Amino acid sequence: MRTRSLGARFLAVLLALSMSAPALLEARVTPTHGFDMFSPQEELQAGQQAQADVRRKLPLLPDSDPVVKYVQYVGAQLAAHAPGEKWPYSFHVVNQKEINAFALPGGPVYVNLGTIQAADNEAELAGVMAHEISHVVQRHGTRQATKQMAAQLPLAILGGLMGRGALSQAAQLGISFGVGSYFLKNSRQAEREADLLGTDIMYDSGFDPHAMAQFFTKIQQQGGSRAPQFLSDHPDPGNRVQYVSREVATLAPKQFRTDSADFRQTKQRVMGMKPLTAQQIAAQQKSNSSGQPENGQPNVGRSAGDITPSSSMRTLNHDAFQLSYPDNWQVFGDRNSAVTIAPRGGVSQNAVAYGVMINGFQPEDPNETLDQATHELLASLRQSNPDLRAIGHDENIRLNGLAGKSIDLIGNSPLQDQNGRVARERDWLVTAKRTNGNLLYLIFISPDQDFGTLRPAFEQMLRTFRMR
Predict the structure, then answer these.
(1) Which of 16, 47, 122, 273 could form a disulfide with 106, with the two C-beta atoms 3.0–4.6 Å apart?
(2) What is the phi/psi pair of residue 187, to 5°?
């Protein structure tokens, strides 16, 4: 956001007072420009490739559907006020019940039908769409992919990729932007940037920006079975309502739009529709694959050589912790984000079948005990995976002198056994409390039948864990 010196502000006030009709200064959020190896043309290509993946895997309403036509109409109004590169924005509706929306590099924006059903007014729906448009403007997907590539490629290769060849190199590294891609899940910083830029886009389009923050807050508070994926892809950056309100306060007062007749008709139409659940969509994908796993998803035991952890270790230096891991496994994430460490054959379609996920969790009350915060985290994990259940009792452990909790869990694996049945997954949850009251947690993951073999490697990794 642009800043003004004290003198400039004082001069502006004098000018305003000298006019017969007082005018307010308008602040404007400036899109951030992080390190990005993808050229605009490669950004478009990446989005086009991902669109093909979306069409294969998700049930989209046809462009001729009145609901889609309405969403396209609203989207076009918002996109007309999007700053930066003039991407060829397009808008689509996924026939899915769960509340969510996402954007692909280069302009495609997708809104779940359940999101339209959940919007109480037109401004709330416009807020979700303006937020997603802002992710496109900020190029969050390719910038995040660039970070991953920078972590995996030597500097000499990185230098040669600037502005050319990044897309093909990303493909060789297994980086894509299709359905479930890690690079479509946003950080809290990216969410804040999209909120603030979306505020200006909504304001310029005539919608009340407060509705965007209110909708996200409402979804978070309601939770339930329709919200977990939304909250996973759009983590709460904190104080959403406050910082959106502060941004609106810098803009000149104006009369915002009320609900249009088109919105009321669309809302009535969608409330009579019965979109598919994520579970039903997954079953369809499985059926369409004729019994073959999607994207080379391995069956249990198929790629043992790729899964077995090496005895040689590497060290990961994260902003929040330090940890050593097998050197034939890969790190997904960066120094200040959630991290997954897994063998190449242990991750498929953003589902981890073998490996460890490390993340933070903010409990409702920072003064909660470690036990209380851990069980609050466990309840949150069960919201997105109701099948998950604890085995035995919690254990108090020490992590290099730090108090920790250990819980063994069992649930469904993303893998299948040799008969095509869903395999059972064993998860080992370990938590510790940071000085700010938040949790840092590790979830070690393996199919149940392989957990005993992998547990020594998991324990070795845990012995090297250091909190910062």
Answers:
(1) 47
(2) -80, 165
Whole-number Å distance between alpha carbons of 336 and 334: 6
Give the separation between CA 315 and CA 352, rounded to whole angstroms: 21
Q: Is 132 marked active-site?
A: yes
Between CA 459 and CA 348 the distance in angstroms is 24
Q: What distance in Å separates the CA atoms of residue 176 and residue 194, rounded to the nearest whole number?
A: 21
**Distance separating alpha carbons of residues 171 and 154, to the nearest angstrom:** 17
Cα separation of 217 and 422, whole Å?
35
* 3-state SS assignment for residue 456: helix
Amino acid at 64: S
Higher-pLDDT residue of 221 and 78 is 78
- H helix intervals, 153-289: 155-161, 166-172, 188-205, 210-222, 228-233, 240-249, 261-271, 278-288
Distance, CA of 27 to CA of 382 (rounded, Å): 42
- Percent of the chain surpassing pLDDT 90: 35
Q: Which of 315, 319, 356, 333 is nearest to 468 (CA)?
A: 319
**Domains of the chain, with CATH numbers?**
6-278 (no CATH), 295-467 (3.40.1000.10)
Spatial CA neighbour of 136 closest among 96, 171, 186: 186
Residue 147, H or E segment:
helix 140-152
- CA 75 to each of CA 8, 64, 107, 122: distance values in angstroms, whole numbers, following the listed order: 36, 16, 11, 12
Helix 122-138, helix 140-152: angle, nearest 10: 40
Distance of CA 2 to the CA centre of its chain: 28
Distances (CA, A) of 214 to 133, 134, 194, 209, 326: 18, 18, 15, 9, 44
Select which of 195, 208, 425, 450 is catalytic: 195
Strand partners, 466: 322
pTM of the model: 0.54
- Of 33-42, 247-256, 413-422, 453-462, the one with minimum mean pLDDT is 413-422
User: From the candidates 42, 43, 122, 132, which is the catalytic residue?
Assistant: 132
pLDDT surpassing 90 at residue 200 = yes
CA–CA separation, 381 and 360 (whole Å): 13
* b (16+ CB within 10 A) / e for 70-104: bbbebbebbbeebeeeebebbbbbbbbbbbbbbbb
Q: Rounded distance, CA 43 to CA 24, Å?
A: 38
**DSSP codes of every residue in 322-344:** EEEEETTEEEES-TTS-EEEEEG
DSSP secondary structure letter of residue 8: H
Q: How far apart are CA 172 and CA 125, in angstroms?
A: 37
